Amino acid sequence: MATLAALRSLGSHRLPQLAARVAAVRHGARRWNSGVTRDPMTGELTSVPNVEPSQVKISQSSTPKPPPDASSLVFGHTFTDHMLTIPWSSGSGWGAPEIKPYSPIVLDPSATVFHYAQGLFEGLKAYRDANGRITLFRPDMNMKRMNNSAARLALPTFNGDAVIELIKQLIRMDKHWIPDKEGYSLYIRPTMIGTQAALGIAPPSQALLFVICSPVGPYYPQGFKPVALYGTTEYSRAAPGGIGAYKLGANYAPGVLIQKEAAKKGYVQNLWLHGPEHYVTEVGTMNAFVVFKHPNGVTELVTPPLDGMILPGITRDSVLSLARDHASGKSPLAGMPEGKFEVNERPVTMKEVKKAAEEGNLVEFFGTGTAAVISPVDRIGYLGTDVHIPTGPDGMGPVSRAVWKQLVGIQTGKIDHPWSVVVA
User: Fold this and answer.
1) Three-state DSSP class for 128?
2) Right CATH number for 55-216 from 3.30.1330.20, 3.40.50.10140, 2.60.40.1080, 3.30.470.10?
3) Which of 8, 110, 186, 359 meets the CB 3.0–4.6 Å disulfide criterion with 178?
4) pLDDT digit string, tens, across residues 353-375
């Protein structure tokens, strides 16, 4: 680190600016690596460094690609010119971040991610508003969940604010990949894997955090289309005390076969039902919501509680927050059902859903997630019969439609809100 004496030799007229820069760098180091300590006698590290944005190395691609026509995009098949990588080792902590051209990652065949599924990921989006401003939607929530997932796999945790800062730098480099069209965005995939080249079930001594970006179009380009679900009772997605509440690759691969079986039966996706009571848990890879109209006139929005089996979705949390603000009168949502409105996180069984449908008290059923935001459901195959669910002319129900309009308005910058974080 340069000293003020050394800076004086560069010219007194530049001293104030350079001194300020040194102070800023020092402040940044304290901000990101406040947990690093040294032995007062030897100077050796007694805790390893955290992620440090000021150390980032940036390499521009020498062969940048032109972004494809937005109408040709298929979700998750096209990637931008650059990626972010941050190595970690148990001895030296987080190494220097690097933003470099998108390229293959070289791993040893014995890397622990291949053998013991030591891998996790996140998903969030960057949006371009009508004024050209680029924003992220609640990235702090993604970093919090990613750290929780890492801790569950005995992978290293990190300073979430520091990684958000690096993701912002990556987006700024590739922001021209965000299509300037309604409903389009840049999907961002932070990932962490164990990379130690050794067999044996133990916390890895080496890991890699990397981020790639993919331009994506609207999930429903032709408008909302309700989906049909198959109520899966033959398999379980998660169990109490397991890994269902974490965004791990190990949670997703086993569901592909189940989705294929649902498709063979004529359904788009499966609905995970748990235990002999057939508790509703998740809609494929999305959180589940049900809306009931009770005889006393109360409209109730219900989602299963975070009991260790349910993934704490960011869209789920956003829907609950907006709905609760409406119920309390803090921020009423246009188009919501009239009368008293309640929001509850409670267990709900498929038998309760079926009974409400038979009695005319089922208002709607939908899933929530980053990719689709809200996915309405019009029927559920359950124990040999179909439970039919009301939907409006546009495919949505009254609650999901009102919440979706508010949520998408925030994401796209049409509605000012603290959840929208400015990138550029």
Assistant:
1) strand
2) 3.30.470.10
3) 186
4) 999 999 999 999 999 999 999 99
